[in-house]
Amino acid sequence: MQSPDPPTPLHVQQIVKTYQQGTAKVFALDGVDQKVEPGEFVAIMGASGSGKSTLLHAMAGLIDVDEGRVKLAGQDLSQLSDAALTRFRRDNLGIVFQAYNLIPSLTAEDNIRLPAPKRMAAKLDSIVEELLDRLDMTARRHHKPGALSGGEQQRIAIARALVCNPTILLADEPTGSLDSISGTQICELLRNLVDQQGHSIVMVTHEPHVAMWADRICVLKDGTNLAELRTDGCRNPQSVAHQYQQALGGEVAV
Ligand SMILES: Nc1ncnc2c1ncn2[C@@H]1O[C@H](COP(=O)(O)OP(=O)(O)OP(=O)(O)O)[C@@H](O)[C@H]1O
């Protein structure tokens, strides 16, 4: 018998999110759709204020939306209680931030272990070993974040995000605090997670040379889907910048 198809990792349907700014109501998201397939790497681009972070936070269930639905691994997040949502997020979602958000007093290895629930105890050692190896961080496992470079800290943050084997990895400007060499290494690492491990990734970035590592680029404008760009695996920042510029109808530096 054939095994059933895996559920769609992430399906965002017509989501609207407003904020009150003084007397004005701001539509941070105004009817956004997005579907991420298994093993797909999607970048979200857009000008400052276009809604990128709000979309990522809505995808992560970190904020409630006013309208529409966020389905993660087939589960409508609005149907879960707060406690159930917290558990569901831990088991199905990995999140990586620009600022790494590691606990300074814990070693690299203990930061990776942090999100794992008790029921994983028996297999946690081997999972952590494998993550340290896969992310080339075994030699640095006993160091605290303050003794690691930015790129190394981000590797540990990615390992921590993967420790529960999530359905999807969300990354908010993961290279934003890194020099270009470390940033490229993190992009290569994310790409390998998709190509070699079959992970699904959504990454917010405003940089064409980072977005080019994705399979597909969703361009937001004023909280709406403006365009979908395909990278076709050619890793060409000029081509991405050109398509992005055309979509926005303005100048974008590479
Ligand atoms: N907590 C909040 N309260 C009020 N307004 C908010 C809040 N968060 C976001 N906004 C507004 O929603 C809109 C979208 O913001 P968002 O941070 O999602 O944009 P962005 O594309 O991520 O921007 P940037 O690239 O500058 O980070 C902006 O107009 C912003 O001012």
TrEMBL record:
Transmembrane segments: none annotated. InterPro entries: AAA+_ATPase, ABC_transporter-like_ATP-bd, ABC_transporter-like_CS, ABC_transpr_LolD-like, MacB-like_ATP-bd, P-loop_NTPase. GO terms for cellular component: membrane protein complex; plasma membrane. Residues 10-247 form the ABC transporter domain. Signal peptide: none annotated. Keywords: ATP-binding, Nucleotide-binding, Transport. It holds the Pfam family ABC_tran. GO terms for molecular function: ATP binding; ATP hydrolysis activity; transmembrane transporter activity. This is Putative ABC transporter ATP-binding protein. Belongs to the ABC transporter superfamily. Macrolide exporter (TC 3.A.1.122) family. SUPFAM superfamilies: P-loop containing nucleoside triphosphate hydrolases.
